[in-house]
Design brief:
- The chain has helices at residues 9-26, 41-52, 80-87, 109-122, 159-165, 184-188, 203-211; strands spanning 2-6, 31-34, 62-65, 67-69, 99-100, 128-131, 153-156, 178-181, 192-197, 229-234.
- The chain is of the alpha/beta class.
- It has a seven-stranded parallel beta sheet, covered by helices on one side.
- α7 links the parallel β9 (192-197) and β10.
- The protein is globular, with a radius of gyration of 17 Å.
- The relative contact order is 0.18.
- Bound molecules: 2-amino-2-deoxy-6-O-phosphono-alpha-D-glucopyranose (GLP).
- 2-amino-2-deoxy-6-O-phosphono-alpha-D-glucopyranose is lined by residues 35-39, 66-67, 132-134, 140-141, 161, 165.
- 2-amino-2-deoxy-6-O-phosphono-alpha-D-glucopyranose binds next to α5.
């Protein structure tokens, strides 16, 4: 694993955007695995800025997102579909049909998960997967569990995740109880994985996930086994790491 220790959220965002830009420039039709949450917002902003300057071209890029709430339609402002359009897709020259997310409105979970796995396969797999991380070590919506989930599946969100994500909704009651998410196996098949983490509130989980034992109780810990992981984390997020970086 390569670790970039950066000063703050702004530097983390610039570094992550740099790495994604390099990918797009060296392979214009890259398949980018994308993430939501507050962590990647600055990264997307930076990409949009470079696009506006004429330094980036998204016309051939294909994207697949990690996850989507089950039951929210595309117009719902809390859906990840809406988030991605607002922060990235509507602001760069990526053709809409080249952007993909699990379909939260498909009530038939098994069918939807199969469709999404087949879609990723038909795109030729993910070149680089961007990941944020939940406070309990979840990636996508792969919550701490007894085993690592291999493929895209439907999950029951943990109470702690519902509580953490309620800030985006009117109340905790509004947060969907289920989501579709790429599995850990799906994520590990990406050629390269780019993890971004910022803030002191993530310091404990960063230490556990990247310097602790590999366990499905800390889903992100499996990333230690991937051959090409880049961790971009700020000083606050790395503040509990005692190992030399
Ligand atoms: C959500 C998303 C994850 C994300 C996590 C962390 O649960 N499903 O993909 O990594 O939140 O969010 P934040 O970046 O806001 O801390």
């Amino acid at each position: 694993m390569r670790v970039y220790a950066v000063k703050d959220y702004r530097e983390m965002s610039r570094k992550a955007a740099n790495i994604l830009s390099a990918q797009i420039i060296s392979k214009p039709d890259s398949v980018l695995g994308l993430a939501t949450g507050s962590t990647p917002i600055g990264t997307y902003e930076q990409l949009v800025e470079w696009y506006e300057k004429g330094d980036l071209d998204f016309s051939e890029v294909r994207t697949v997102n990690l996850d989507e709430y089950k039951g929210l339609d595309k117009e719902n402002k809390q859906s990840y579909y809406y988030f991605m359009h607002r922060h990235l897709f509507d602001r760069v020259n990526i053709p809409q049909e080249q952007t993909h997310l699990p379909d939260g409105t498909n009530a038939e979970a098994e069918k939807e998960c199969r469709r999404y796995e087949e879609l990723m396969e038909s795109l030729g797999g993910i070149d680089i997967q961007l990941l944020g991380m939940g406070h309990n070590g979840h990636i996508g919506f792969n919550e701490p569990a007894e085993a690592f989930a291999k493929e895209t599946h439907c999950v029951d969100l943990q109470e702690s995740t519902i509580q953490a994500n309620k800030r985006f909704f009117e109340s905790a009651k509004e947060v969907p109880r289920q989501a579709y998410t790429m599995g850990i196996g799906t994520i590990l098949r990406a050629v390269r994985i780019l993890v971004i983490v910022s803030g002191e509130d993530k310091a404990d989980i960063v230490k556990k996930a990247f310097w602790g034992p590999i366990t499905p109780q800390v889903p992100a810990s499996i990333l230690q086994l991937h051959p090409d992981v880049i961790l971009v984390a700020d000083e606050a997020a790395l503040s509990k790491v005692t190992e030399k970086l």
